[in-house]
Automatic annotation (TrEMBL):
Known EC number: 6.1.1.1
Cell compartment(s), UniProt: Cytoplasm
BP GO terms, sorted: tyrosyl-tRNA aminoacylation
Originating organism: Qipengyuania soli
Leader sequence residues: none
Binding positions for L-tyrosine per the UniProt entry: Y39, Y176, Q180
Gene3D superfamilies, sorted: HUPs, RNA-binding S4 domain, Tyrosyl-Transfer RNA Synthetase
Name of the molecule in the record: Tyrosine--tRNA ligase
GO cellular component, one term: cytosol
The gene coding this protein: tyrS
Amino acid sequence: MSTYTSDLLRLLEERGYIHQITDPAGLDALAAKQVIPGYIGFDATAPSLHIGSLVQIMMLRRLQQAGHKPIVVMGGGTTKVGDPSGKDESRKMLTNEDIDANIAGIRKVFERLLAFGDGPTDAVMVNNDEWLSKLGYIELLRDVGPHFTINRMLTFDSVKLRLEREQPLTFLEFNYMILQAYDFRELAQRYACRLQMGGSDQWGNIVNGMELGRRMDGTELFGLTTPLLTTADGSKMGKTAAGAVWLNEEQLPSYDFWQYWRNVDDRDVGRFLRLFTDIPLTKIERLESLEGAEINSAKAILANEVTKLVRGEEAAALAERTAAETFSGGGAGEDLPSLSVGAEGMRIGAALTELGFTASNGEAKRKLAEGAVKLDGETISDPGYLVSLAEGTEAKLSLGKKKHAILRP
C-alpha cells in the first residue's frame, strides 16, 4: 500500500521510478495541492537520444499524466561544457550548428510522448543556452561562486572517479555542476519550476541546484532520482554488442528497435512494461506471471507498445508484421534492415559486421564456423564467401534465429 497521498508520487512509486527523493513528505504535500512544473535536462551530444534516456522521458510523461507540467531542458549551453558524470574522458567539442541540429533531431521523440502547448500542464521545451550564454563570467563568480566550495565539489563521484584513475578533468568540465545547479535556479525563476528529476548519477548535481536556489532566492526546491537502470544480466540499459539502441528512426530502423524489446530477458518483462508502457498495472501483473514459451507473447506486447509510443503505430505494426513473416513463414519482411554489397560483391563476414550482427570480423568468422549463418536458407561456413548479386535481385542473410537482413546489389 502506498504511503503517498498525491497522484504523482503514487504513480511514480507503483511503476518503479523512485530511487531517492530529497523531501518525500514535502513533495507529496505540494503535488497534492498544486500543479508542479518539473524538469529533466538532456544534453545534445547526438542527433538522437538512446533508450538509456527513455526512463527519464517516460518520467516526464508520468508527470504530465498526473496533472503536472513537464519542462524539457535541452542542454544547448551545458553541451558546450560536457557532463563528466560516468565519463572517463572529455567529450569532443561541438559547434553551435551541430548542437542546434542535434536538438532538432531529439525534439521528435518528445513530441510523440508529451503534449506541448501553453496550458498549465502542457509541456515546454527550453534551451539552457538562452541564459547560460548570457552569463558574464565575473557575474557568475560573484553571484554563484560563493555558494560552492572546492572541498565539496571534490567529493562528487564524477570528479573523484577521474582523479582516482589519474585521468584529466578539465576546468571546463569542473564547471558543469555549477552550470547545472544554475539551471535549476533559473527555471525556478522563469517557470516556477519546483522539481528536478534525473538518474541516480545526477543526485549530487540536483542537490547542488536545490541548495543554490534556497541560498540565492529562499525557494524550496525538490529532487527525485530513478534507480540506475540495468538489465537482468547486469548490463547497462541502451547498449548492445551492435551499438546503442537509438530512439530515432534515422539512427536505427524500427524493426531493430522492435526486436530489442522482443528479445529482452524474461526477468525484465514486468519491470519494463511498468516503466515504458501505459498498460494498466493489473494487466502487467498477468503478463509477467506467464512462463515458458508464453512469456514471448508478453515480450511481443512490450515491443509493440514501446515502438508505438516512440516510433508511432504504423512503425510498430510494420515491425511486428516483418517479424511474423521472417520467423513464421521463412519469408523476408519489408521492414528488415538492408545492406548494399555493391557491384563487386562483399565477403559474407564483412556483411555481418557491417550490419552490426557481429562486433568484429573475428566474431563473424567464429559464427560462420559454428554454422550459425545462412544465406537464403543455406548454411555458409566459408568466411571468404563472396556475396555477389545481379541487378534487381536480393538475398536474405540470417545469423541464428533472431537476426535477419536483406542484401541488395
